[in-house]
Every structure is written in C-alpha cells, then in structure tokens.
Amino acid sequence: MLRTAPLAAPLLYSNRRTVTALDRESGLPRWHFKAGSRVLRFLFALERVFVLDSNCVVYCLSPDDGRLLGSVAAAEASNWGAAMLAHDGCLYVATSAGVVALTQDGSVLWRHESGEKGTDGVLPGLALPGSAVQPDLKE
Predict the structure, then answer these.
(1) Is 107 exposed, middle or buried (0-12, 13-18, 19+ CB in 10 A)?
(2) Cα torsion through 2, 47, 81, 59, rounded to 10
(3) How many helices (H) and strands (E) are present in the chain, helices listed first?
(4) Dist. CA 61–CA 51, nearest whole Å
(5) Domains of the chain, with CATH numbers?
(6) pLDDT tens-digit readout, 59-92
(7) Residue 104 contacts by C-beta under 8 Å, 6 or more apart in sequence?
(8) What pTM was computed for the model?
(9) Contacts 24+ apart (CB under 8 A), 124-131
C-alpha cells in the first residue's frame, strides 16, 4: 500500500473576514474560510484551527482543508472578542463580557461573566504560567 506523507501545517493569514491557509513551500492557498464578521484572532491548537470573530463567535476548523467542524458564541455579539489561549485540552476565550472555557469539540465547560457589557476600547487578556495573550487596544 502506498502511503503519502502528511501535509506540513499551513501558514495562516487573515484579512478582514477571511482566513487563508497557505502552503509554506509554494505560497499557494490550500483553503479559505470566511467568518461571519471581522476576524480578530486565530490559532492552531488541539489539532484544530480556531477563529474568533468580532461578534464573539469561535469557529473550529480542520487544519487540513478548512472544513467547519463547529462554532459557538463565546459572548453576545454586542461584546468584543479579544484573546484565545489553549492549554491542557481546553480553549479559553476572553471577551469584553468575561471568559469562556471550551473543549476541543466546542462544548462549554464553564463561563465567567465580568458584569461588563460592550467595550470601552480596552480589551481583556489571558495568562497561564509560561504563556500570555495581551491584545492591543480596540480601534
């Protein structure tokens, strides 16, 4: 039986609402994904690609072909998605409304509501020992 080598992970590029996976050797696009609103953050973690848009929706994609595996609202759309951090099989998402912890399949483990609504231009960050995500100010 002939086996093919697994593809190297692509280079991700985002522009407005679209995330494009580029082949690292050729620069050619492998796949495109269009989010529901402006892409704020994305990351490779837990054998997935996670995309956070400005409506606080987290999309879970296959890194091989960009296929949508699922999506979940991390907060109401009137809030602002700010940071994502993966650790020990969980994805933590910070928004202007609080923090949500998600499993690899998108199930909500828990939510912490900050009591704040919307954003005043300051975006929340996340930190664990050895890693931190501290976003820029909102435009």
Answers:
(1) exposed
(2) 50
(3) 0, 13
(4) 8
(5) 11-133 (2.40.128.630)
(6) 999 999 999 999 999 888 777 777 899 999 999 9
(7) 46, 47, 48, 60, 89, 91
(8) 0.84
(9) 124/82, 124/83, 124/94, 124/95, 124/96, 124/99, 125/82, 125/83, 125/94, 126/83, 126/84, 126/85, 126/92, 126/94, 126/99, 127/85, 128/85, 128/87, 131/85, 131/87
Q: Is 33 left (phi over 0), alpha (psi -120 to 50) or beta?
A: beta
SS3 per residue for 81-104 = EEEEEEECCEEEEEECCEEEEEEC
Tokens representing 32 are: 């495109």
